[in-house]
Design brief:
Elements: H1 2-7, E1 11-15, H2 16-19, E2 22-25, E3 36-42, E4 51-55, E5 63-64, E6 67-71, E7 79-82, E8 86-88, E9 92-96, H3 102-112, H4 127-132, E10 134-138, H5 147-164, E11 183-188, H6 189-192, E12 193-197, E13 208-214, E14 223-227, E15 236-237, E16 240-244, E17 252-255, E18 259-261, E19 265-270, H7 277-288, H8 302-307, E20 309-314, H9 322-340
Parallel strand pairs: 3-8, 13-18
Antiparallel strand pairs: 1-10, 2-9, 3-4, 5-8, 6-7, 6-9, 11-20, 12-19, 13-14, 15-18, 16-17, 16-19
Helix pairs in contact: 3-5, 7-9
Length: 345
Amino acid sequence: MSNQLLKFKNWRPFFLNEIFTTIQRGKRLTKANQLPGHMPYVSSTSFSNGIDGFIGNEKNVRKFSKCITIANSGSVGSVFYHDYEFIASDHVTILSNPLFNKNHYLFLVTALSRIGDKYSFNREINDYRIKREKIMLPVDENENPDWNFIDEYTRLKKQETENKFEFPELNFVNDFKELKEVRWREFSLDEIAKVKGGKDWPERDRKQGLVPFVGSTSMGNGITDFVNTAGRENQVDSNVIGVNRNGSVGYTFYHSYVAYFSGDTRFLKLNMYSDDKYINLFVKTMIQAQKDKYAYGYKMGTERIKRQKILLPVMEDGKIDYDFMRDYMKRIENKILLRCKNTEV
């Protein structure tokens, strides 16, 4: 229904500086000068809403909120809306107008996303170009952007989407013990899983496709690209735990889907219940709890990962208590689901 409304509107192009009152670059901040913290740092990545990490810098940074960012370099043209406060790098430009609400911004993100098709790593969006860019917008009888229509259209589109979404049912749980109420024992990772090595695949040799490419980032579940894995089927797997051995060392992610694992990662297939999401998530959390032992100069090679020890809950006979692990993670998921439904936990 909402799509039909667009056909009856007149459209015309507008320069970005006709639409936005603020068009401003973020400020350069090198990795070496970034301090640990909780403030989102938005840069030129095309993943995770443009967030490249979380930092604690307060001086010599530019903070923004309730605005759009567009990447000038890197993943050129990647566009995101941010309704939270963040720090912007010099690789993105901020677009804002105090008269806009969230619906206006969401509509504009879609319109702006077409700009990226014109650019590449060799042709960045500089300050002059971005002000001269145009986007098409629906107009009113005076040939001005019809912001009332844009607001109502976006509201209707959101309602249609929400009506199609079925909220997941809560998990049935048998075990309600807390972590401090169970026994624990150390296990090396090669006791509980088969550890496999990823394989390098330079970006210049990859073909774009639909299979997630798992690199050594700490963001986006470790995914840095999407590739065509024809001829490389022996390097893909699913229902495994990926561990970064390089880069963001020690970050760990569960991959229920088929993915390709780079040489900067190792991946583990559990010996028991390898297709159980909840048990994989429990083990993944315990592995990542060890990440602070490692750094760029102390990498997690295959043998080191195999020898890495983690604590797991056990039954009276000393065997791993998989039932508790499964039920504990189901309880965590239930709490999140209840929060999403605005229900007290």
